[in-house]
From TrEMBL:
Lineage: Bacteria, Bacillati, Bacillota, Bacilli, Lactobacillales
Species annotation: Ligilactobacillus murinus
TM helices/strands, residue ranges: none
Pfam name, any one: Prim-Pol
Domain Primase C-terminal span(s) in chain numbering: 195-260
Protein name per the record: DNA replication protein
CDD domains: Prim_Pol (cd04859)
Length: 264
């Protein structure tokens, strides 16, 4: 099955996908997970016009969650899975799983309630609920690939309860087992603010700003406040800054999406 055929098959099943620049995780100009589509003609046009593109998946639309495990800092995938289990977070392996070009793993699960992405849940583990790059995309010749049934999303199993609770409640992960108390550490909001100030560069500007604006909107802040902060983030922490028109497009898309999500 070619990348085009596989992506069309996902669209036929109702999954929303969006096009990425070949060999990257960056959306094509004017595209993002907020503009993802399951329209077969639109998907066909992406491949016909741009060639063998990479593909991203809108997780939120399909109530999907991905546990993203990397093998950074000399830590193996197995060690990280055991560390999750040590904290009581057992990861069901009987589900659809993809291997990333870097050797990491994406465990796919279904959810039933809206949840939010958590970066660095524990070292080398991100919990994704908005978007992800999927097979058969490739980076520098190395492909995302299924390590279970060949690209069979029907094998995706329900998320374990701890995963849903963790993404809803954002409780501390690390605990002092002897006293059963959270170890003092930076909370999620602190990490998020650090992420914003760290900023990003040209390779991931759209996705990165989309995440930040999405988070700001979900805090419940007034839209005018969110827009003002979004402009400052773009100006001060993105190099080079996105055009104002692009910031406006992202902001409006997120506002529309949040309204639609809870109207369904």
């Amino acid at each position: 099955m070619t990348p085009k055929q596989y992506t069309l098959e996902l669209a036929k099943r109702g999954y929303r996908v969006y096009p990425l620049v070949p060999n990257t995780k960056q959306p094509l100009k004017g595209q993002s997970y907020l503009t993802a589509s399951n329209d077969e003609q639109e998907v066909t046009n992406w491949f016909d016009v741009h060639g063998n593109i990479n593909v991203g998946l809108d997780l939120a639309w399909s109530w999907l969650i991905v546990v993203d495990i990397d093998n950074h800092a000399g830590t193996s995938i197995r060690e990280t899975i055991l560390k999750l289990a040590e904290y009581g977070y057992n990861l069901p392996a009987e589900t659809y799983i993809e291997q990333t070009p870097s050797g990491g793993l994406h465990f796919f699960y279904t959810g039933t309630v809206p949840v939010k992405r958590i970066t660095n849940f524990i070292p080398n583990v991100d919990l994704l609920a908005d978007f992800t790059v999927i097979a058969p995309s490739s980076i520098n010749g190395d492909a995302y690939r299924s390590i279970t049934d060949q690209y069979n999303y029907t094998k995706i199993r329900p998320a374990p309860l701890w995963l849903i609770q963790a993404m809803q409640e954002r409780k501390p992960v690390y605990t002092d087992k002897a006293n059963n108390k959270p170890i003092t550490s930076k909370n999620w909001t602190g990490k998020k603010l650090d992420e914003i100030v760290t900023g990003t560069n040209a390779g991931d500007r759209n996705n990165w700003l989309t995440r930040q604006i999405g988070w700001l909107v979900r805090t419940g802040a007034d839209p005018k406040t969110v827009y003002t902060i979004a402009q400052q983030i773009n100006r001060d922490y993105i190099s080079p800054p996105l055009p104002d028109s692009e910031v406006n497009t992202i902001f409006k898309s997120i506002i529309r999406r949040e309204v639609q999500k809870y109207d369904r």
